[in-house]
Design a protein that fits this description.
Nucleotidyltransferase, domain 5, two-stranded antiparallel sheet, alpha/beta, 402 residues, five-stranded mixed beta sheet
Length: 402
């Protein structure tokens, strides 16, 4: 069999790849002791191209990097073979790790699992999405970076997030089951550009302290205990409250069940807010969650100008929180909370009735989000970051007391 570089059936090489005659010239110049920059100028190539060629395709059998054109061409041909077997196909332990983090069951801290409701996509883009199901739902990027922390001494347990996406989206790369796309936050079965809906809601302004008056220490996240909050809305005027700590990204979910006397489709003019997310219900839910925290983690709360915060003055008295309000139609001023709400839509998609979910189910979802690694935390989880923060506060308190 003739070698590929002289075979009449071989595909012609394109300009971006080194040819066999160029590799012969490189071998001659290397034997003369010519430098990389000089070789690159002679061949009209980038110095980095020559450097990579000498590193990747040199002969190493004798323990040294001897560059020979025939050996280099053999290495290049072998590397160019397609399709290559993916890491997830040949490494069972790696594949199991990825699938467990994508599709693991949502459970609360006591280990009680929740399968969640069956949510079927509707609308014009439903063909591109999978019906949602609850899972631990780590993103491919989180999985790829967390591998380095969980297996620091095992180089075989490495994979890029792009390789995981390709295994899910591209037929023929099928190391992962195609149905696992339902575990992605977007639920997409295909890659599509994102769409953002503009959110419009009722606003109020009564003796409120605006975000422009918020201290600088809150803005730079230097001091923990400052929170951002909002509501996730669903069908039938249902809602779930979200609270996110700015430093650790630790998330708490507020259970806002419908109140006694609520009737679907019926509204009473100037009547009490029975849907479950009126001002009193939200105030009680926030106070119940916040009073469980130590004083060091109960500093301030930033919210938008929604009518659900009409009792903010009483909330300040109940919890000691300083309440700040964003400017109208400025969700970027609560960027941490907005990002977290986007992650939570994995479990609470738009167009679904959120009143189905019990407080135990919300606790399980919060536990899943808080035990997922975050890029902004150096791939630690929010729970780990909060535990570390509380441990430091405890040590400082003991030292001060001593």
């Amino acid at each position: 069999m003739p070698p590929t570089h002289v075979s009449p059936s071989a595909k012609p090489t394109i300009g971006r790849y080194l040819t066999f005659p160029e590799r012969e010239d490189i071998a001659i110049e290397v034997a003369k002791g010519t430098g990389i920059n000089a070789i690159a100028r002679k061949l009209g190539r980038s110095p980095s191209t020559i450097s990579r060629e000498l590193t990747r395709n040199a002969a190493t059998r004798g323990g040294s990097f001897d560059y020979r054109a025939s050996t280099a061409q053999w290495h290049a041909d072998r590397a160019a073979r397609r399709p290559k077997p993916s890491k997830l196909t040949i490494n069972t332990a790696l594949r199991d790790y990825v699938q467990d983090r994508l599709a693991g069951q949502v459970a609360n801290p006591d280990g009680v699992g929740f399968s969640g409701p069956d949510v079927v996509w509707k609308g014009r883009r439903a063909v591109y999405r999978q019906s949602r199901r609850w899972s631990s739902a780590w993103s491919p990027e989180q999985i790829a970076h967390r591998l380095r922390l969980d297996f620091p001494e095992d180089p075989t347990m490495r994979i890029s997030h792009e390789a995981i996406y390709q295994s899910l989206y591209i037929q023929g790369r099928g190391a992962l089951r195609r149905d696992l796309t339902a575990c992605l936050r977007s639920g997409r079965a295909l890659r599509l550009p994102r769409e953002r809906a503009r959110r419009r809601g009722k606003s109020f302004l009564a003796e409120a302290i605006m975000i422009s008056e918020r201290p600088a220490e809150i803005e730079d996240r230097a001091v923990p205990g400052h929170w951002e909050g909002d509501l996730i809305l669903g069908l039938g005027s249902s809602a779930i409250g979200t609270l996110v700590e700015r430093t650790t990204r630790f998330t708490m979910l507020l259970h806002l069940p419908r109140m006694e006397g609520y009737r679907p489709g019926e509204t009473v003019k100037n009547g009490p807010p029975l849907a479950g997310h009126g001002a009193e219900a939200v105030r009680v839910a926030i106070a119940k969650s916040m009073t469980k925290l130590p004083d060091t983690l109960r500093q301030s709360l930033t919210w938008d100008q929604g009518a659900e915060m009409a009792q903010h003055a009483r909330l300040h008295i109940d919890t000691g929180l300083d309440i700040y309000f964003c400017d109208p139609q400025s969700p970027w001023q609560r960027g941490t909370n907005e990002n977290t709400n986007g992650l939570l839509r994995q479990y609470f998609p738009k167009g679904t009735d959120l009143s189905w979910h019990s407080s135990d189910a919300l606790e399980a979802v919060a536990h899943a989000v808080n035990t997922r690694p975050r890029k902004t935390l150096g791939w630690k989880t929010p729970a780990e970051a909060l535990d570390q923060l509380l441990a430091n506060v405890h040590i400082e308190g003991v030292a001060t007391t001593g």
